[in-house]
# Entry
Amino acid sequence: MNHHPQTQPKAPTLLLLALFGGLTGGFCGSQPAISADEKPAAAAASQDPANPAAQTAPQQPAADLPPADEILNQARSRLEGLDSLECDLQQTALIGGMKILASGHYTEASGNRVQLTFRMYPMATAKADDAKASALDAPPTELKPEDNKGELQQISDGTVVYTSWKNGDTVRVTRRNLRDIQTAATSATGFESGSIAMDLGVGGLRSLISRLQTSMVFAPVRKVTAGERTLLEVTGRWSDRVRRELFGLPENTFVDARPWVPEYCRVYVDQETMLLRRIQYLKHSPNPADKLARPLLTLDLRNLKLNGPVDDDMFRFTPPENTPVEDQTEAVIEAIRNAKPGK
# Structure
């Protein structure tokens, strides 16, 4: 069992971190597959035409498709065979009737080097037409860089990770020494040191896939179409252990009352290239008896470039002038040391 220090970022910060450890770090376990009677989000959403999660693309039975773990293993292996990967990102968060858009760029390279940049845009009221914009084959929403209201940047050279939050004229920069934290995790009882990079948000897409596999139970894989591409749709829900130990939910509680915490995750993998196309977190209806779910966070990966040249300077961070850097290394190490089995 893993015992990890947990922070409690709030929406939409929590949503931004969801793909890089904030929602998937720290717990393992397995459960029986989701039963057909339970109708996971992938199936339930299509019953409601007004639901932004609805898919109009035809779906094929899962009988001729590999299980979810095998699909995710293949996607992870595909990434592991790359020297570098770059892609454009667009994220849509829907919370409390409001829509929050963000766009950015992601680069990962050998040596656990990562650069992630996200620009956040003003909130807007969610509309029925948003369902069309969230379709798998929909073009990216056009956003003007000058309209952005904040920026998240995370850079790791494989040894130190810097995170910079910019909100208007306010900038906050944090620093964590991965090697020192890794050493502390290695000596801590019951702490899985190999997962520390993912928990700190720098594990990359490969680590994300791995942590979903150890944090979720999966429904049968579905095949969907997006334009001329065939995608494999993998839907999972948090295991009982994650709901209990990470989200603090009472036993036999499935729906989290907090509006920014999802119950499901849906991953789309291109069948031909076995590369990730979309990662989506979904929120179940507040009434557990309802078999409906809506998208909470959708991240699309576009314009993927494989094994291209990357500049080493991309993974070096220089704080803005006159901006203090908050070193969180010792705080993380202390939290690791104080972690208790079963907590």
